[in-house]
Design goal:
Layout (H helix, E strand, L loop, with lengths): L1 H11 L5 H19 L1 H4 L30 H37 L1 H15 L3 H12 L3 H27 L3 H8 L4 H37 L11 H8 L9 H30 L3
Helix pairs in contact: 2-4, 2-11, 4-5, 4-7, 4-9, 5-7, 6-7, 7-9, 8-9, 9-10, 9-11, 10-11
Length: about 280
């Protein structure tokens, strides 16, 4: 409840940046609602080949049609499911691996910390997109493989942030007091350190999701995420890009603008939460 109240409170306050936060929340909730309600709001089958090839935006096709006559509006709606699914799975895996390893590394220190830090620093030194491309190529094109590739890239981010917080928290008096009364190390990390690390995890989550959206779109653009004719924003952007010079601007515009808006929405939420934590909770 405290976290929910923390997220809602800034929306009620009249402070600079409040409008950006509201915009970010609206964009994210709209895309989530679009993904959930896709079977009910999609006017056409997104994979069905039609006769209206390269039809411009109109009342019949609000976002036009592509080179196969597929309705772009329907593909945008159904494509939201793919990108949200991949990003959600990738982020969950990153948190599930990076956070526990960061706690263990920061709390125990010694050889455990040195080995884990060396491994994570090695992964972190690679450009994220290139590393994701290599892993996706090895695993093969599919949404779940793309999620695994992206999660592998962002594990070091959660690890480094949680480790740093744990190193500073394990010397605090409340942790020393818990040790003095014989509390087990696992319980100290779970009950005393982890709750104080959650704000950092929340900030990293919102900011990394925005980056993960762009990474997923990049992998899809390269054909490493989904296989045709599955609707996906990055894939549709790839298909529409060659036709830009022929005047069929809507093929690349709408997938591109949706990728930008969703990433921007999460980034705005992340920046607002980060600013709030930096200034202190009021």
């Amino acid at each position: 409840m405290r976290i929910i109240d923390f997220l809602i409170k800034p929306l009620r306050e009249r402070k600079p940046g409040r409008g950006l936060l509201i915009f970010g929340v609206i964009v994210v909730l709209t895309v989530v609602a679009m993904a959930i309600l896709a079977p009910f709001i999609s006017p056409y089958n997104p994979t069905q080949i039609g006769e209206d090839i390269f039809a411009p935006p109109s009342l019949k096709h609000p976002m036009g049609t592509n080179n196969l006559g597929q309705d772009m509006f329907s593909r945008i709606i159904w494509g939201s499911r793919i990108i949200l699914y991949v990003v959600a799975v990738a982020t969950t895996l990153s948190i599930a691996i990076g956070v526990p390893l960061g706690l263990l590394s920061g709390y125990y220190g010694g050889k455990t910390d040195r080995v884990l830090s060396m491994i994570m620093d090695s992964i972190y030194s690679f450009p994220s997109l290139i590393l994701a491309i290599v892993i996706a190529v090895v695993l093969g094109p599919s949404p779940i493989n793309t999620a695994v590739a992206i999660s592998f890239v962002y594990v070091p981010t959660y690890f480094r942030m949680v480790r740093g917080q744990t190193l500073s928290l394990k010397g605090q008096l409340f942790v020393e007091a818990a040790k003095a009364i014989g509390t087990k190390s696992s319980e100290i990390m779970r009950k005393y350190i982890l709750p104080n690390v959650l704000p950092t995890i929340l900030v990293v989550f919102t900011l990394s999701v925005a980056d993960a959206i762009l990474t997923e779109a990049g992998l899809s653009f390269l054909g490493l995420s989904v296989t045709p004719p599955t609707p996906d924003w990055g894939y549709d952007l790839h298909v529409g890009q060659p036709f830009l010079l022929d005047g069929y601007w809507w093929l690349a515009f709408f997938p591109g603008i949706m990728i930008m808006l969703l990433a921007m929405g999460f980034a705005m939420i992340g920046e607002a939460i980060n600013e709030r934590f930096s200034l202190g909770t009021r």
